[in-house]
Amino acid sequence: MALRITQRTWLVIVIIAFMTTVVHTESGVSGDIPDDVVYTDLHKTVRIGDSVVLTCQFRGTPLAVYWKKGDDPRTAPNLVSWIPTDDVTGLCEGERPCQVMEMNEDRSLAIKEVSIAEEGRYICRVSSYRGILIHNFTDIRLFSIPEEPYPIIKQCANDSSQICSISASESITITCLATSFYPDLDLFFLHGSQKMKDIGSTELTNHDGTKNKSISIKASASNTPYICVASDIPGSKDQRAATIMVNSPMISPTRGNEGFPAPSSTNAGTMEKTPDTMELTPRSMEITPGTMEITPGKRTTKIGNA
Ligand SMILES: *[C@@H]1O[C@H](CO)[C@@H](O)[C@H](O)[C@H]1NC(C)=O
Ligand SMILES: *[C@@H]1O[C@H](CO)[C@@H](O)[C@H](O)[C@H]1NC(C)=O
Ligand SMILES: *[C@@H]1O[C@H](CO)[C@@H](O)[C@H](O)[C@H]1NC(C)=O
């Protein structure tokens, strides 16, 4: 009996000693990671021009680590590779990887400055401590916030007054634009609650891969402002708007005219509202309040019980 207990005690000691050794050879982050598994982020969303670190976690000390770009871990070209005799940063391959990428000590991939060229799938392929090749991947998605201010109504570009207005005796073209965004953005005009049909739109791609977009509408003199709305803005959940008034030259821009309907000049071609064809989308209700304050101050001030 005594012999058996001693044997068991020894067994426990040996097991503890063994486990301690195993834990000791692992890096801190990979303590709970099973054999033959690589953990990476599924995707990373990065602003163009920012830096990013792609993590790669696995069990034990690897025989080699390869960061690759592409879909197939066997054929995708190496960006940076590392074996235990290499410098901690690993060896880069190719012009762009050598400019912006290197490995960290924990075998994560650091990209210094992300450009359009860095969009895509990154594979971390590891020759594990058991000598087995394992991998996982991270998709990099990019975005770029439009250049401020946006959106811009072209016809208001030089207008420093609080409410941009132009006068037109006939229908005129109004253009609204946003620049340097990625990947996409929606621009449209509202006239009252009516979403207007544009007469043209352009989308241009800049050298850095970001885009410029503009849309144009035909507008004519109206008491209702024309509002250009930017929605689905990269990096933002809000909408932005810019406002323009199109006045008839018949109304002299003197004080005291406010509240009177515009004299309906026959050649002004006033927009007819057709409520049945246009629906106010719920989104257009989210226009930031600041930009909607077109009517002169209607604020009520609470007096008393304060
Ligand atoms: C890849 O990484 C994800 C996220 O960390 C993880 O859920 C998944 O199990 C990994 N797949 C493999 C094959 O290691
Ligand atoms: C704004 O001003 C610039 C220079 O002062 C001029 O070239 C341009 O045509 C003006 N734009 C508009 C829309 O009035
Ligand atoms: C996009 O807009 C920016 C800012 O107005 C301008 O500098 C750039 O030239 C435009 N890009 C293209 C392709 O037209």
Please outline the helices and strands.
Blueprint: H1 2-25, E1 43-47, E2 52-54, E3 64-69, E4 78-82, E5 91-92, H2 95-100, E6 101-103, E7 109-111, E8 120-127, E9 133-143, E10 152-153, E11 164-167, E12 172-181, E13 186-191, E14 194-195, E15 200-205, E16 211-219, E17 226-231, E18 240-247, H3 289-292
Parallel strand pairs: 1-9, 11-18
Antiparallel strand pairs: 2-7, 3-4, 3-8, 4-5, 6-7, 8-9, 10-12, 12-16, 13-14, 13-17, 15-16, 17-18
One 2-acetamido-2-deoxy-beta-D-glucopyranose is lined by residues 154-155, 157-158.
Strand order of the largest sheet: 1-9-8-3-4-5
How much of the sequence lies in strands comes to 25-35%
Q: Quickly give the CATH architecture of the domain at 33-143.
A: Sandwich
Question: Regarding CATH, which class of the domain at 33-143?
Answer: Mainly Beta
Structural class: mainly beta
What average pLDDT do the residues reach?
81
- The level of helicity is 10-25%
- DSSP E strands, number: 18
Order of helices and strands: HEEEEEHEEEEEEEEEEEEEH
Keywords:
306 residues; mainly beta; Immunoglobulin-like; 6-stranded mixed beta sheet; 5-stranded mixed beta sheet; 18 strands; 11% helix; 32% strand; elongated; disordered C terminus; binds 2-acetamido-2-deoxy-beta-D-glucopyranose; Ig_I-set; Ig-like_dom_sf; Ig-like domain-containing protein; signal; transmembrane
